Structure formats: C-alpha cells, structure tokens
Automatic annotation (TrEMBL):
GO terms for biological process: isopentenyl diphosphate biosynthetic process, methylerythritol 4-phosphate pathway. The lineage of its organism: Bacteria, Bacillati, Bacillota, Clostridia, Halanaerobiales. Its EC number is 2.7.7.60. The record marks 156, 211 as: Positions MEP for the nucleophilic attack. The keyword Transferase applies. Catalyzes the formation of 4-diphosphocytidyl-2-C-methyl-D-erythritol from CTP and 2-C-methyl-D-erythritol 4-phosphate (MEP). It comes from Halothermothrix orenii (strain H 168 / OCM 544 / DSM 9562). This is 2-C-methyl-D-erythritol 4-phosphate cytidylyltransferase. Pathway: Isoprenoid biosynthesis; isopentenyl diphosphate biosynthesis via DXP pathway; isopentenyl diphosphate from 1-deoxy-D-xylulose 5-phosphate: step 2/6. The gene is ispD. GO terms for molecular function: 2-C-methyl-D-erythritol 4-phosphate cytidylyltransferase activity. NCBIfam families: ispD. Belongs to the IspD/TarI cytidylyltransferase family. IspD subfamily. Coiled coil: none annotated. It is an enzyme of class 2 (transferase).
Length: 229
C-alpha cells in the first residue's frame, strides 16, 4: 500500500505569545517541526510522500531552516496553506499523486508521538479506513448554557481527547473535504469523515503526545524529551 503524510504547519500560534510560528521554536535545540518530521523518517516505515503545509510567507524560511538543514535530500514537499486548518489540509491532499492509498495527518506541533502510536495507526487504517488517535479525558467535563451555568455533565467514561495522527483512505478524506459544506466549523479531519457518514475508529493515543501551543507546553515537552533520554 502507498501511504502519504500531511503535516499541517500553517497555524499562527497566537497562544504561544511569540512573533515566530510555534513550529519553528526550538525544542532541545531543534525546531519543533524538525522533531515532528523525524518521527516519520526514524520510524523504519516507508512513506511514499510527505507534505508539509506552511504559510506562503514562511515557505523559504521552512525550506532553509528545517528541510534543507535537517533533512537534505529527503522526499519532502512544501506547499502553501490557507486561512484555516481545513484549507491547509486540503492543499496537502491535492499535492498527492493518484497512487496514494492512505493518508496520515499529523499536527506539526506534536513532536513527541511515540512510535507504538504510529504502528497502531498504520495497522488500524487498513482495517477500518478511517481512524483517529485519542486518550481518555482525566478531568470532569461540563456542558454550560449561554449564561455560563452548568447544563449537563456527560459520562467521562465515554469521552476521549482527540489527538493526531489521524488516518484515512485517501479517496474518503478527499471526498469529505470536497463535499462537506465549507460553512461548517472544523477542528479535526475525522469530523468531516463523520459528517460524510463513515465510522471512525478510535486508536489508543498517548498522554506524551501533546500539542505544543503555549509556553507551558514547551516546558512540558522539554521535560518529556529529557525523561525519554
């Protein structure tokens, strides 16, 4: 089977409170995005295409400071993203050749995905056609009404915190992006596939697989890296 990878890295990272896009901040001396890409190149698995989606004005910076510096000669395609995550992922999907069978989508700001998670995703996608990773929520979740009062408390045992990687049969995820209304607010790709009527299997993720979006996350990521050394 032929597998493509999309790394969305076109976000602005406002919550990080820095002028620089969060994916280029240094984590243990290397850009976060470089760590994320290394997960795939060091996995021992064959990926037929890896596409990194960045903001148009950052393409040259990404090429010089991440791709050329850490992955010279590697088959990485850089494409320009859009205003939203959905637009950026779709730009990545359009960059693939028709021979691609499955697509893995993994946030550029998740540099600590353990290899067993990737293994489970690769096995799951063949069996289920659409998978997402996730972990059980640790905190109690409350629904609130418009006035800010609690309206309901869902059963925590039925809730997960969704992560990436998410993976899909290529034709399914491309169809979902093309056919589901652009007016619908989307925060993950599994939601689009759900709206198309396909079941999405949840694959066990990892609490170490954090998304680095705030300064505190960066400190936590450094600690996780040191623990793994």
């Amino acid at each position: 089977m032929k597998v493509g990878v999309i790394i969305p890295a076109a976000g602005q990272g406002r919550r990080m409170g820095r002028d620089m896009n969060k994916q280029y901040l240094l984590l243990n001396g290397r850009p976060i995005l470089a760590h994320t890409l290394s997960l795939f190149f060091s996995s021992g698995k064959k990926f037929d295409q890896i596409t990194v989606v960045v903001r148009p004005q950052e393409k040259e910076y990404c090429y010089q400071n991440v791709i050329q510096k850490y992955f010279p000669g590697k088959p990485i395609k850089l494409v320009s993203g859009g205003e939203t995550r959905r637009e950026s992922v779709y730009a990545g999907l359009k960059s693939f050749s028709p021979e691609i069978d499955y697509v893995i989508i993994h946030d550029g700001a998740r540099p600590l995905m353990p290899y067993p998670v990737l293994e489970r995703v690769l096995k799951g996608i063949v069996e289920y056609d659409a998978v997402t990773t996730g972990v059980r929520v640790k905190d109690t979740i409350k629904f609130i009404n418009g006035g800010g009062f609690v309206s309901n408390t869902p059963d925590r045992g039925k809730l997960i915190a969704v992560q990436t990687p998410q993976a899909f049969r290529y034709d399914i995820i491309k169809k979902a992006h093309e056919e589901i209304s652009s007016d619908i607010q989307v925060t993950d790709d599994a939601f689009l596939v759900e709206k198309l009527g396909y079941p999405v299997k949840v694959i066990k993720g990892s609490y170490d697989n954090i998304k680095v979006t705030t300064p505190v996350d960066l400190i936590i990521a450094e600690a996780i890296l040191k623990t793994g050394d």
